[in-house]
Design goal:
Largest sheet: 7 strands, mixed
Structural class: alpha/beta
Number of helices: 15
Helix content: 25-40%
Number of domains: 3
Distance between the termini: 11 Å
Bound molecules: flavin-adenine dinucleotide
Radius of gyration: 22 Å
Amino acid sequence: MKKVGIIGTGFSSLTAAIELSKMGFDVEVFEKNSSPGGRARHFEVDGFTFDMGPSWYWMPDVFDDFFKKHNKKISDYYDLVKLDPGFSIYYEDKNRLDVPESYEELKKVFESIENGSSEKLEKFIKRAEKKYEIGVKNLVYKPSKSFLEFLNIKVIKGAFHLDIFTVFSKYVRKYFKHPKLIKLMEFPILFLGALPSNTPAMYSLMNYSALKQGTYYPIGGFFKVIDSLVKIAEESGVKFHYDSEVTKINVVNKVVENFEINNKKISIDIVVAGADYHHVEKNLLQEKYRNYDEKYWDSRKLAPSSLLFYLGVNKKLLNVNHHTLFFDQDFSVHAEEIYETPKWPSSPLFYMSCPSVTDETIAPKGMENLMLLIPLAPGLEDTEEMREKYFNIMMKRIQQLTGNDFKENIVYKKSYCVKDFEKDYHAYKGNAYGLANTLDQTAILKPSLRNKHINNLFYTGQLTVPGPGVPPSIISGQVVASEINKHF
Ligand SMILES: Cc1cc2nc3c(=O)[nH]c(=O)nc-3n(C[C@H](O)[C@H](O)[C@H](O)COP(=O)(O)OP(=O)(O)OC[C@H]3O[C@@H](n4cnc5c(N)ncnc54)[C@H](O)[C@@H]3O)c2cc1C
């Protein structure tokens, strides 16, 4: 049995581990931190359970398909609820729009804002659904080693529907005029880590997921998904090693022989690097074996980093939904400060997650569990003073817009920012979400999932194909496993 060593326990590493062990490989996983999940870890403190990263459960079919493929049922592992409203947005006029769970209700909301827009939404979503079918059911499962992979009849026929060469910002304005609707439609694109003016309209497939499929939540928190994958992996014989940072990958004659953990050499037949791509290449490999040099990484458009706060509040908040976007400031200014002239935002847009509205298991009775998030340019100078300054800005805006004053009721507070991403995950410039999904960083233009100089070293995760986010990472692990199975 060939032994596969997987570096990291993010979503992609876990799905790769499950697939490879089912394919008959002997799989061991090595994680530098003391618990699994990578960016999707959680922590428990004083009766609160905080998800540290993902909170939006979109593209539920990607999760379903993976569980089904392994003869498992999601409901045997966690309870998935559909949120209503799916999410809420505060606009510049200080009013809030709740996005209803029901698509028919959503059409009424659109119509109430712009005459004729419900019909346009219908057309937009129909096209987006087509893109979803071609993109998420087909294209993203390709290893993206060559354009030739995409030359099959289904894809060629579908290419017409994909709008690859139209930018999203232009595309959406063909359908809607009202700035509130445009902001709502552009929001899911921000998940892809780039501006709507830099993102192919193909990604309107995200609107299909956000607005038609809806927003889900696993009771107990997003970490329940990680926990389930670890259980499935263990059931199929995968061995996990925590507090086990890989510090060097040793190569002889273009083949990895072993990697080093705590000065101990671990012999390995095949390596899957699920840790951040740049870190693996720069810190674990000799220069001659790297796929990409520093100049390449420097030229990449990274998705943002983030400033996060995890808060325990000892009272219930009023009039607060599960997901709230504070888009009450000028989006273009904040966007410019993330992507064009990186600096701390002058007037940030931010996001508040309050999962305890839905889930009583993650906070003590009568209390709330909150996460606040400001997207930031990667690589910014990260100081306590800055974190605190932006904490106060967010608290003030939450009070003004929702009417909740709870600063004195915070019984637990932890911040997380650029330096933590670097320290905890070896994240290049402290990035939170990997590389932006711009056209020139899509499919075969992403960092390759195979090392070009070493026969048995593969990469997986949000920095390679298909890209950032939980569903793409779940897919990335499957794609790399299938490549390995083909070669060995
Ligand atoms: C704040 C935040 C919010 C997010 N929100 C959402 C959301 O709402 N919905 C969504 O779909 N996606 C969201 N994402 C994105 C999503 O979480 C990621 O795309 C996904 O989890 C990345 O998975 P990955 O497989 O690339 O591994 P990662 O999670 O990046 O894990 C890599 C692992 O490798 C380990 N590692 C690094 N170096 C070494 C080493 N030398 N030796 C051993 N181990 C090592 C790290 O400790 C880590 O555990 C969010 C991300 C963040 C940070």
